[in-house]
Amino acid sequence: MTAYEDPEAVASFISAIKNQSTPVEKILIVDNSNDKKVCLQPSVNNSNLEVIYSPENLGVSGSLKIAYKRLFSYKYDFLWTFDQDSIPAFSCLENLLKVYREVSQNNYKVGIIAPLSIDLRNNNIIEGANFVKDHFAGCQHQQKKLYECDAPITSGTLISLTTAKTISIPREDLFIDGIDLDYGLRLKQAGYHNFIVTDAIMHHNFGHPSEIKFINRNLLVQKYPPIRHYYICRNHTYLETRYAQGLYKVTSSLKRIKYLIFTIIKIILFDHEYKNIKIWACLLGTFHGFIGKLGKLWH
């Protein structure tokens, strides 16, 4: 699990993992906080818990790099990755493993097995994504036991370490946002199938939703800080324009410009804090995405 400045969330996560119906052998936390807050939690005093403190914020991608490389050297079967704002239900892991075994017996090359993610603040299902010609689109939830998805969200992802060793680890230069899109799609291109398991439930806080009233309609708007705007614009622009082929590269670029314009309009209309910085973050992120300038550039 990637942790950052929220010891209460870490404690809740550890409790949820310890209480899984299928035991977890090791909990690895990469803590990017400015000080060692996680150590102050009494629940961390456990023999199967390891906390790695980073002198700088490595982001999701840097934390995943540590986890993958560290666990490759151990004799574990699976890696289950999380953000700190996710809580898996009691039988989540049990249901994921059950489906993994069932699907594997049908000669499927299984990549990711992921839970159904629900944001309890608004009861919205958090969709994974499919890459459609020139952009990533939400993978619509289906009312069945499991369904395929190009890229489930990072949090809750269960992957066999044997499978993980066959492709390169999640890209460190994306820092935050879009890491799951790239990794899931690369698994699919390598011939693997990624699944959402609907009876494996995970509660996950997605973004910063705010309900606003606009022309007599109630709208749900995500209010991100500048850092998130920068990496969303940059990484999505970079990935979509690189994965698009042929003439779709042109339409992909146009859609990213359209996204930029509409995001700036929403910031002007509905966001009351740091408007100018957020607009600049969107502009700079989109530009860096087009020219392929990656890495930890806004922090």
Detailed description of the structure:
- With 299 residues, the chain is of the alpha+beta class.
- The protein folds into two domains: 2-204, Spore Coat Polysaccharide Biosynthesis Protein SpsA, Chain A, CATH 3.90.550; 209-291, no CATH class.
- Helices cover 37% and strands 23% of the residues.
- The protein has eight helices and 14 strands.
- It has helices spanning 7-18, 59-72, 92-104, 161-164, 179-189, 226-243, 248-270, 275-291; strands at residues 2-3, 27-31, 49-53, 78-80, 86-88, 110-119, 124-126, 129-132, 135-138, 146-148, 158-160, 193-204, 209-214, 217-222.
- Strands 4, 5, 6, 7, 10, 11 and 12 form a seven-stranded mixed beta sheet that branches. Strands 1-2-3 form a three-stranded parallel beta sheet.
- Strand 6 (110-119) and strand 7 form a beta hairpin.
- It is globular, with a radius of gyration of 19 Å.
- The mean pLDDT is 92.
